[in-house]
Amino acid sequence: QVQLVESGGGLVQPGGSLRLSCVVSGTIFSIYTMGWYRQAPGKQRELVAAITSGGSTNYADSVKGRFTISRDNAKMYLQMNSLKPEDTAVYYCNLARRDLTAADFGSWGQGTQVTVSS
Predict the structure, then answer these.
(1) What are the distances in angstroms from CA 72 to CA 3, 30, 83, 99?
(2) Which of 111, 104, 110 lies closest to 35 in space, CA to CA?
(3) 45-76 confidence digits (pLDDT tens)
(4) Cα 102–2–19 angle (5° rounding)?
(5) Helices vs. strands in the chain: H and E counts, helices first
(6) For residue 72, what are the contacts with CB-CB under 8 A and spacing of at least 6?
(7) Which helix (H) or strand (E) covers residue 60, if one does?
(8) Model confidence over 78-105: pLDDT tens digits?
(9) How confident is the model at residue 32 (pLDDT cuts 50, 70, 90)?
(10) Is the dihedral of CA 76, 81, 83, 86 positive or negative?
(11) How far apart are CA 27 and CA 108, in angstroms?
(12) Cα separations (Å) of 37 from 93, 94, 111, 118?
C-alpha cells in the first residue's frame, strides 16, 4: 500500500515562506506525475501544483509566481513564498496530472497544516 507523509507546515506571517516536503513509499515514486493539493476549511480540496517525472511543472493561477514545486529521487517539495492568509489550508501530496486534474493512489496522508496569520 502506498503511504504518503507530508511535513514542513506551520504558522507564518503574511509575506513569509515555508518549505513543504513529501515522502512516498510503497511505489516507484520517480515514475509518476505528482502534485500538491490543499484543502481550506469548508472548501473542496484543490490541486495547486504538479510536476512530471521529467520535471515539467504547472501551477494554479492562485499560486503562480509564489510557489515552486520540485522533486528529487526520494522526495517532493513545495517552496512557498509571499504567503497570504488565503493560503491557509492543510496541504497534501499525491498523484496528479500535469493539466492540474486530480488523481490519487487510493489513499492520502495526514497532510501538513499551513496557517498564514499575523
Answers:
(1) 17, 8, 24, 21
(2) 104
(3) 999 999 999 999 999 999 999 999 999 988 99
(4) 65
(5) 0, 10
(6) none
(7) none
(8) 999 999 999 999 999 999 999 999 999 9
(9) very high
(10) negative
(11) 14
(12) 6, 8, 9, 24
Tell me phi and psi for residue 6, to 5 degrees: -100, 150
Neighbour tally for 7: CB within 10 Å: 16
**Residue partners of 59: CB distance under 8 A and separation at least 6:** 48, 49, 50, 67, 69
Residue 65, Ramachandran bin (φ over 0: left; ψ between -120 and 50: alpha; else beta): left
What pLDDT sits at residue 36?
98
3 pLDDT higher than 90: yes
**Contact yes or no for 81/48 (Cβ under 8 A):** no
- Provide the CB-side half-sphere exposure for 28 (13 A, CA): 2
What value does the mean pLDDT of the chain take? 96
